[in-house]
């Protein structure tokens, strides 16, 4: 039986930079176009599914090269490794809930955290399909307008964790538009300072706790689990 679970977004949350944004900005249609697309997603005129598809379709670089590029350029959040170790020591499962593509996530986790991270961290994400001529595309997890409806994945995990009886404390950590479907699912939502998820939460009056790095997340989680602070106190924003 577990008493807490960390659900986390991957790109821009576990990693310091967003790997798909990086690929789009350097190999695809660029930052300006990407920002326009995601303005539409945030104001509800475009689905995340379509916006993300357009963005990735603009990247013509072969997939293995994309993997290499992100491995060389993407860093880890400075507090994630400590959080991972603390979670292992304390029996707190970490579940990555991502709109990114599994092979990129696995490659980055193995390189930045260590090969054991792939064994210890569950990954729920989209996939990728590569044709024999090297053309590749994202394969969405479900039919929702998000491509991956994170709320559904979280609900499925919650059922599993609660099968033993007691409900654990659920944390969710995220940064962006891909987290809109997850924002309301957990007891304590951590949203990264200055990023789109904060804009969304303010607009929709979704309570959240702002963070800069996993160092902040870890210290808040410890406070909650030690009974020093309540979830309500932390979700004051
Ligand atoms: O859900 P994750 O792990 O953040 O992955 C998906 C992200 O790469 C993706 O959402 C990215 O933030 C952009 O489209 C927004 O500019
Ligand atoms: Mg993200």
Automatic annotation (TrEMBL):
* Pfam families tied to this protein: HAD (PF12710)
Q: Which domain of life is it from?
A: Eukaryota
Query: GO molecular function terms here?
Result: ribitol-5-phosphatase activity; sn-glycerol 1-phosphatase activity; sn-glycerol 3-phosphatase activity; sorbitol-6-phosphatase activity
The protein's UniProt keywords, in alphabetical order, are: Hydrolase
Q: Tell me if Oxidoreductase is a UniProt keyword of this record.
A: no
Q: Which processes are annotated in GO (biological process)?
A: alditol phosphate metabolic process
Listed NCBIfam families: DKMTPPase-SF, HAD-SF-IB
What is the designated name of this protein? LADA_0H15610g1_1
Q: Print the organism lineage.
A: Eukaryota, Fungi, Dikarya, Ascomycota, Saccharomycotina
């Amino acid at each position: 039986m577990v008493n807490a679970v960390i659900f986390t977004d991957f790109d821009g949350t576990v990693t310091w930079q967003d790997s798909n944004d990086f690929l789009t900005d350097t190999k695809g249609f660029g930052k300006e176009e990407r920002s326009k697309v995601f303005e539409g997603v945030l104001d509800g005129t475009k689905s995340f599914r379509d916006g993300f598809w357009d963005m990735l379709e603009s990247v013509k670089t072969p997939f293995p090269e994309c993997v290499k590029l992100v491995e060389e350029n993407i860093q880890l959040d400075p507090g994630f490794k400590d959080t991972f170790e603390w979670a292992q020591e304390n029996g707190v499962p970490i579940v990555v809930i991502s709109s990114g593509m599994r092979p990129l996530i696995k490659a980055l986790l193995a390189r930045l955290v260590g090969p054991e991270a792939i064994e210890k961290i569950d990954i729920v994400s989209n996939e990728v399909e590569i044709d024999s001529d090297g053309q590749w595309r994202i394969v969405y997890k479900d039919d929702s307008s998000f491509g991956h409806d994170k709320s559904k994945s979280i609900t499925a995990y919650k059922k599993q964790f609660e099968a033993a009886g007691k409900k654990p404390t659920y944390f969710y950590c995220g940064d962006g538009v891909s987290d809109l479907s997850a924002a309301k699912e957990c007891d304590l939502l951590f949203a990264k300072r200055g990023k789109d998820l904060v804009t969304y939460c303010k607009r929709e009056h979704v309570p959240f706790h702002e963070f800069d790095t996993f160092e902040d997340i870890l210290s808040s989680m410890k406070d909650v689990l030690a009974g020093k602070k309540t979830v309500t106190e932390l979700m004051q924003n």
